[in-house]
Amino acid sequence: MPKKPNSSDYVVGIIGAGAMGRGIAQIMVTGGINVLLFDTNDEAAAAGRDFADRMIFRACEKGLMSEEEAKGAVERLAVAGKLSDLAVADLVIEAVIEDLDVKRQVFLSLEECVTKECVLATNTSSLSVTAIAAVMKYPGRFAGFHFFNPVPLMKIVEVVNGLETNEETCEILVRISRRVGHEPVRAKDTPGFLVNHAGRGLNTEGVRIVSEGITNFSGVDDLLREGGPNFRMGPFELMDTTGLDVSHPVMESIYQQFYGEPRFRPNPLTLQRSVAGLHGRKTGRGFYTYKDNKKMQNLEEDAPEVMPESIWISKAEPEGHDLLISALREVIEIDKGQKPSKRSLCLFTPTGSDVTSAATTEGVEAERSFGVDTLFGLDGRRTLMSTPVSDPDLRDLVHAALAADGHTVTVIHDSPGFVNQRVVATIVNIACDIAQQRIASPSDIDKAVTLGLGYPMGPLSMGDNVGAKRVLKILNAMYDFYGDPRYRASPWLKRRALLGVSLLTTEN
Questions:
Q1: 34 catalytic, yes or no?
Q2: 98 is known as an active-site residue
Q3: Which end of the chain is more exposed for a tag (fewer CB within 10 A), N or C?
Q4: What class is the 11-189 domain?
């Protein structure tokens, strides 16, 4: 029987002393667990131990632990001279290169020297847990144990069961996670597991928007940060931080592993920039330019000052109409007619649709028609959308009206769902499909995304915040417009929208 994870004499072996291995070692020893760190390169193992020791004492200097606790943690970390030294381990975590054959060989060798009760785990981020376990004698004791870099700061770990993983194995890993102060989320073995799977929507849809010429990189980032969804970083800032040499291969890998699922379709734009070596911060140029590792800010043009005579606001979307009335009535004359007078500029607040469709449906001239995104309110950065034939001078007048009370306005070209609507709807839809496939529980999906990706809230909670029916409306409108199955709504979303219940609602 495996040793209880809360035992004072519990021993964890770690194979691989790189960034992940030494990070895992650090949290294990600070959590009171004895660690044997092994690397085929003895110098790398010693360097990994020394690095972990420095980080522990640095934490002590910052007052995060006492000197006694730091010394105790350092004493619990030792270097294993050879693989067979891990025979005493109760759990062995592999953190070597992302190569299936290499990982398989590691575990074949481990099974020859550890006890039958020893739990084995891989920190893989992209390979199938089931595929690694296929060569093992005892696949039931093997699971994914995926930490995120930097391990001490990213307080989340994915516990991934392969097809033959025993439940006891996963429970041990869950208890170890909590012992070292990390929040475990359970996931089935699937491409991207949970966090990387759920994170597809932000980047891929952001890139799609730019590739359609709707706005530029900073336009997308600014709106997602400041226009209501309140993401910490937009997709292009995020890819520059991660490095496009990392982000693009992940996009391609997950798309291919899901046999061309349209929801995960990458874009040539990221491939081209990756091939060009524009990887982001690490190269000084990515989607943005960096100097001394700081992003060079794009200067925004001042809002026009000439105001329109009056503005007419469509009542097709009553909530959007009321929000826009409330925002503009103090700064501009509102045309209250059923149809706009000839002197009025025309504003629409479509949900999921574009302004061309909205204007033509109501029989209003497209030249004087514009769209404003009200789905996330109007307290932050505002979005002004024009048709292909909108008069630029008239657009400037509307821009001035929207900016008159001090708000910043981003002007975009026509797009079903603007920017924020379509990105958020895509994120929510992918999360719904993860729930539908029972890859993870709804609560774990939200927990994984908030902790692993830093989103302001989990994607299912985000969908509840917007309203499941409105998310469904956005997706259906985009699907009708593009005819692209990328935007087909998940059954999980459809049913809960129809029932009027939370997207976090599990099956009875």
A1: no
A2: no
A3: C
A4: alpha beta
Task: Name which of 155, 225, 231, 223 is nearest 456 in CA terms.
Answer: 231
Rounded CA-CA distance 463/460 in Å is: 5
Q: 69 is written with which tokens?
A: 């606790």
Q: In the numeric block, which tokens belong to residue 199?
A: 């994170």
Instruction: Write the secondary structure of 275-316 as one string of H (helix), E (strand) and C (coil).
Output: HCCCCEHHHCECCCEEECCEECCCCCCCCCCCCCCEEEECCC
**Beta-bridge partners for 289:** 285
Give the angle 133-95-259 at the CA atoms, nearest 5°.
55
- The one-letter code for the residue type at 382 is R
Catalytic residue selected from 34, 146, 317, 420: 146
What span, in angstroms and rounded, lies between the C-alpha atoms of 121 and 144? 5
- The neighbouring-strand residues paired with 344 are 310
Question: Is 321 known to be catalytic?
Answer: no
The one catalytic residue among 123, 128, 177, 196: 196
CATH number of the 197-295 domain: 1.10.1040.50
DSSP secondary structure of 182-211? -EEEEEES-TTTTHHHHTHHHHHHHHHHHH
Peptide bond preceding 456: is omega within 30 degrees of 0, i.e. cis? no
Residue with tokens 């109409």: 321
Pairing type for strands 310-313 and 333-335 reads parallel
Write down the catalytic residue from 34, 94, 128, 158. Answer: 158
Please, what's the largest Cα pairwise distance for the chain? Answer: 85
CB 57, CB 15: distance < 8 Å: no
DSSP code per residue over 437-455: TTSS-HHHHHHHHHHHH--
Mean pLDDT by 10 residues, the chain (508 residues): 89 97 97 97 95 95 94 96 96 96 97 96 95 97 96 97 97 97 97 94 97 97 96 96 92 94 96 96 95 84 89 97 95 94 96 97 97 97 97 96 96 98 98 98 97 96 98 98 98 98 94
Active site (annotated) includes residue 177: no
Q: In terms of Cα–Cα distance, which of 24, 11, 123 is closest to 76?
A: 11
10 Å Cβ neighbour count for 296? 10
